Amino acid sequence: MELEGRVKLGKKTKDLVKRLNGKEIAVIDHKDIDELAAISLTNTEVKAVINASSSITGKYPNLGPEKLIENGIFILEEVGSDIFEKLNDGERIKLIDNRIIKDGIEISQGKVLDRVKLEERLIESRNNLEDELEKFVENTLEYAKEEKELVLGLKTPEIKTSIKGRHVLIIVRGQDYRQDLEAIISYIREVRPILIGVDGGADALLEVGLKPNIIVGDMDSISDRALQQENVELIVHAYPDGRAPGLKRVKDLGLNAHKFPAPGTSEDIAMLLAYEKGAELITAVGTHSNMIDFLEKGRPGMASTFLIRLKVGDKLIDAKGVNKLYNSRLRSKHILQLLFAALVPVIIILGVAPPMQQMMRLLLIKLRFSLGF
C-alpha cells in the first residue's frame, strides 16, 4: 500500500476535524477511537489516519476504527507521540505500508490496522467486556453513594427562558444524532419545544435550520457561530468547586453566561435544568446512556447520569434510535396503488355521466363498422 498527501496534526481529534479540508492525512493521538470521532474524520474526507496511540486496545469494543475502515480510510497506529515533533502542518509525506516517509527519508514506523487485525481485536475486546462491565458497575455505585446529595440537591441557575409547562428537546452530538433529529423534525415544528443544545448539539440544531434557546456545556466543542446566535442563553458547566474553564472563551467573545457547578456530564445538567424549571416533557436526542457510550468518553462510571435519570425519569423520553424504529420509504407499488385509487372515482364519474355514455356508444359503433360487423 502506498499513498501520499499533506498532513494536519492535532492531539485532540475534535479540535483537529475543524481544521481539516479534505484529502489530507490526519495525525492524532487518540487511544480507542470512538464512533463520533470516526464519523467526524470521515466527514472531512481524510485519506488516512496516523495515530500515535492504539486505535483499539481491546479493552472494550469501541466502534471508531470499524467506521474508518468501512469508509476506506487507511489507519496507521502506534507510531509514538514523537510524531508530533517530526511533522508540521502542511508537510507532504508518503505512507508506504507501515512506514512514514518525508523528503525521501523514513521518519517513523507504525502498525497497519486492517480489517483482519481489527476483527481480532474486537473478539478480544468482547471477551474483556464482562470484566469491564463489573468494574463499571462497581464504580457507578461507589460514586453514586458519594455524589447523591451533591447531585440531587443541586441548585439550578436562574434563567430568562420560560420552561414551565413546555416540552423541552435536549440535543447532544452523540451516536445517530443527525438521523434521530431529522426523524422528529415534524414534532419539533408542530409542538415547538424549548431547544437545549449541549455543546456541539447547538451546531447540530443549526445544521437542520433550527436555533437553540439555551446552550449548556463546557464550551469546548461548539462553534463561535452557535455561541453568537442572538437571544440564546448560555450556561457554562463548571466543576463542583466552581472552576469553569469554558467561561473564558465565552467572555473572550464578549458574551455573558450563567455558571452551573455540578459533577457529571453537561447533558446531565441540561436534563436537570429542564426538570427543575418545570418542563412538561423532556426528549433527549444523541445522549449517552450505556456503558460503551461512557467508556468511549473515557468515563469509568455513570453515577451522576444514573442519579439524574432516576430523578427526571417520569418526564424523560430518549429518542436514541428513533430513526431505526420507523423509516418510511415510498415504494413503487405504493405509487401504483395511489394512482389506481385516484383513478377509480374518475372512471365511475365518467361512466355514469350522460355525455360520456353517448361517446362510449359512438366508439362502440365505430369499432363495429371497422371490424365489419
From TrEMBL:
<feature type="transmembrane region" description="Helical">
    <location>
        <begin position="335"/>
        <end position="353"/>
    </location>
</feature>
<dbReference type="GO" id="GO:0016301">
    <property type="term" value="F:kinase activity"/>
</dbReference>
<feature type="domain" description="SteA-like C-terminal">
    <location>
        <begin position="320"/>
        <end position="368"/>
    </location>
</feature>
<dbReference type="Pfam" id="PF04263">
    <property type="entry name" value="TPK_catalytic"/>
</dbReference>
<dbReference type="InterPro" id="IPR022215">
    <property type="entry name" value="SteA-like_C"/>
</dbReference>
<protein>
    <submittedName>
        <fullName>Uncharacterized membrane-anchored protein</fullName>
    </submittedName>
</protein>
<dbReference type="InterPro" id="IPR007371">
    <property type="entry name" value="TPK_catalytic"/>
</dbReference>
<feature type="domain" description="Thiamin pyrophosphokinase catalytic">
    <location>
        <begin position="193"/>
        <end position="230"/>
    </location>
</feature>
<dbReference type="GO" id="GO:0004788">
    <property type="term" value="F:thiamine diphosphokinase activity"/>
</dbReference>
<keyword id="KW-0418">Kinase</keyword>
<keyword id="KW-1133">Transmembrane helix</keyword>
<feature type="coiled-coil region">
    <location>
        <begin position="115"/>
        <end position="146"/>
    </location>
</feature>
<keyword id="KW-0808">Transferase</keyword>
<dbReference type="GO" id="GO:0005524">
    <property type="term" value="F:ATP binding"/>
</dbReference>
<keyword id="KW-0472">Membrane</keyword>
<keyword id="KW-0175">Coiled coil</keyword>
<keyword id="KW-0547">Nucleotide-binding</keyword>
<dbReference type="GO" id="GO:0009229">
    <property type="term" value="P:thiamine diphosphate biosynthetic process"/>
</dbReference>
<dbReference type="InterPro" id="IPR047795">
    <property type="entry name" value="Put_SteA-like"/>
</dbReference>
<dbReference type="Pfam" id="PF12555">
    <property type="entry name" value="SteA-like_C"/>
</dbReference>
<keyword id="KW-0067">ATP-binding</keyword>
<dbReference type="InterPro" id="IPR036759">
    <property type="entry name" value="TPK_catalytic_sf"/>
</dbReference>
<keyword id="KW-0812">Transmembrane</keyword>
